[in-house]
Amino acid sequence: MKITAIHTHYVRIPFDMGAPKQEFAGLRFPTMDHLLVQVETDAGITGWGEGFGHSIIPATKTALEAYVGPWFIGKDATEINALHREAAQAFHIFGRNGPVVYAHSGIDIALWDIAGKRADLPLCDLLGGARRKEVRAYASLMRYANPKTVGRIAEERVALGFKHIKLHEHSIDAVRAAREGAGADIALMNDVNCPWSVAQAIEMERAFRSSNLYWLEEPVWPPEDHDGLARVRKSGSTRIAAGENAAGLHDFVDQFQKGSIDVAQPSVTKIGGITEMRKIVAAAEAHSVELVPHCAYFGPGNLASIHIVASLATDTLLENIYVNLEANPFGDAMLAKDGKVRVPTGPGLGVEPDMKVVEKYRQGPVGTVR
């Protein structure tokens, strides 16, 4: 089964987040942006993937159309593992993280979607079988910066059935307000997106203790300072999570061996797709580290993450970003109800995009590689 064409769809969808938008992870988000990757084969089976992400999408799209996509044309879509290794080695001169890897991730996800459709099985079955029909989701809030707003939004998420809530707040007051709004029985996490030195992170971990965080995420700059992160973990009493900025399997293994993290967070649209995720899942299990995928997207990467979480031996969590999209090409497939998301049961990823929605929000023409 040969790959005959790869198409890219750059989609930007307006959203609201229940309050005025703030700068978040160094960026402003006027829209939620997606790079949908469509892979066609000579067998007539089409797969969908997603490459990271947000404001870097133009670079990922260019990398895919100029170099990564042409490499895959004519290759056998059924040889997923072999293609993944060969492609990664072919592309390594351009770095082991960033737009080239993001583009590769999108194609890899699409190949797994094709594999599921070819077998007439949902992706989770190819990954070992779904242990559950629904996965537990945590509400991942955008950054609000205003304590009163954070407390209100946290309270609203609890009322909708979420038992776990993640913040993206830097101030002690905002985190305290979220704890007050959520209540004492809700698991509260805080992702700070790599703002502090090791010494500052140690100090902030202590300052946050009164809010009883379930985990503190990415407190150290730079994220590759695994030794520094291990110092924060060793000196504190709060679990440490990280991994969305890691560069593949060996970056995670280094964190495991150095005792840097309690919770591993690989991102399927950034790390090399489902194939690389499977390796990291196995390594995390071997090192007795909990794995909770990073999932800050609303396309095939989210669907793939649902299937991955459903197939894990442990009953872990799925990240569920709290924004209200004006529309979603995949309908309500990612919508959490009572804090849970249903696992799609159709072949492959289980849900096909509504092309009318894609076309409405697509920026410019379809990109095509043949």
Task: Please give the structural blueprint.
Elements (H helix, E strand, L loop, with lengths): L2 E14 L14 E11 L4 E6 L5 H16 L7 H12 L7 H21 L3 H4 L7 E7 L6 H13 L4 E4 L4 H11 L4 E5 L6 H11 L4 E5 L8 H10 L4 E3 L6 H10 L4 E2 L8 H14 L3 E2 L8 H12 L5 E5 L2 E2 L14 E3 L12 H7 L5 E3 L1
Parallel strand pairs: 4-5, 4-11, 5-6, 6-7, 7-8, 8-9, 9-10
Antiparallel strand pairs: 1-2, 1-12, 1-14, 2-3, 4-13
Helix pairs in contact: 1-3, 2-3, 5-6, 7-8, 9-10
Provide a compact summary of the structure.
The chain is α/β, with parallel strands linked by helices.
Describe this structure in words.
With about 375 residues, the chain is an alpha/beta fold. The protein folds into 2 domains: about 5-120 and about 355-370, Enolase-like, domain 1 (2-Layer Sandwich); about 125-340, TIM Barrel. Helix content is about 40%, strand content about 20%. The chain is built from 12 helices and 14 strands. The strands form 2 sheets. Strands 4, 5, 6, 7, 8, 9, 10, 11 and 13 form a 9-stranded mixed sheet that branches. Strands 1, 2, 3, 12 and 14 form a 5-stranded antiparallel sheet that branches. Helix 7 (about 200-210) links the parallel strand 6 (about 185-190) and strand 7 (about 215). Helix 5 packs parallel to helix 6 (about 170-180) and helix 9 runs parallel beside helix 10. The chain starts with a strand and ends with a strand. The model has no long low-confidence stretch (mean pLDDT about 95).
